[in-house]
């Protein structure tokens, strides 16, 4: 894989995985779909514009169609789809899911700039949904330490995000 493709993979992988997971409800299958989308992109990159928006659109579309094709082709696995509540989304739902996955990808990028202990606490609290007490027990830290690290993380997030994005983040996390 060349440097450009590696950069695209690094930039879009997590967001695409989240998008795929929202479609299929299975993280391993979602990762497979995303990896397949990148393989298809690499095979067809000469046919695709070098414009980053075109590439991003191609990758999201490839993941979407791969998820829908799995649903249609695998009648044997229909019970599984019922179990994970797979449904075809309309275009508005897909756009919201894409926006949400890109947003969480950006949050992950910002959190990755934090010191390791603060990073871990913020991921557990804001992304994985653990309470301060649960984080405290798991990491064997005081609740006040957890709160302090989460405050530091929020301060960094605020400095990197526009106010309307920060409001979106705060609306979807338990702070």
TrEMBL record:
<dbReference type="InterPro" id="IPR013325">
    <property type="entry name" value="RNA_pol_sigma_r2"/>
</dbReference>
<dbReference type="InterPro" id="IPR013249">
    <property type="entry name" value="RNA_pol_sigma70_r4_t2"/>
</dbReference>
<dbReference type="InterPro" id="IPR039425">
    <property type="entry name" value="RNA_pol_sigma-70-like"/>
</dbReference>
<dbReference type="InterPro" id="IPR007627">
    <property type="entry name" value="RNA_pol_sigma70_r2"/>
</dbReference>
<protein>
    <submittedName>
        <fullName>RNA polymerase sigma-70 factor</fullName>
    </submittedName>
</protein>
<dbReference type="GO" id="GO:0006352">
    <property type="term" value="P:DNA-templated transcription initiation"/>
</dbReference>
<keyword id="KW-0731">Sigma factor</keyword>
<comment type="similarity">
    <text>Belongs to the sigma-70 factor family. ECF subfamily.</text>
</comment>
<dbReference type="GO" id="GO:0016987">
    <property type="term" value="F:sigma factor activity"/>
</dbReference>
<dbReference type="InterPro" id="IPR014327">
    <property type="entry name" value="RNA_pol_sigma70_bacteroid"/>
</dbReference>
<keyword id="KW-0805">Transcription regulation</keyword>
<keyword id="KW-0804">Transcription</keyword>
<dbReference type="InterPro" id="IPR036388">
    <property type="entry name" value="WH-like_DNA-bd_sf"/>
</dbReference>
<feature type="domain" description="RNA polymerase sigma factor 70 region 4 type 2">
    <location>
        <begin position="107"/>
        <end position="153"/>
    </location>
</feature>
<dbReference type="GO" id="GO:0003677">
    <property type="term" value="F:DNA binding"/>
</dbReference>
<dbReference type="Pfam" id="PF04542">
    <property type="entry name" value="Sigma70_r2"/>
</dbReference>
<dbReference type="InterPro" id="IPR014284">
    <property type="entry name" value="RNA_pol_sigma-70_dom"/>
</dbReference>
<dbReference type="Pfam" id="PF08281">
    <property type="entry name" value="Sigma70_r4_2"/>
</dbReference>
<feature type="domain" description="RNA polymerase sigma-70 region 2">
    <location>
        <begin position="8"/>
        <end position="75"/>
    </location>
</feature>
<dbReference type="InterPro" id="IPR013324">
    <property type="entry name" value="RNA_pol_sigma_r3/r4-like"/>
</dbReference>
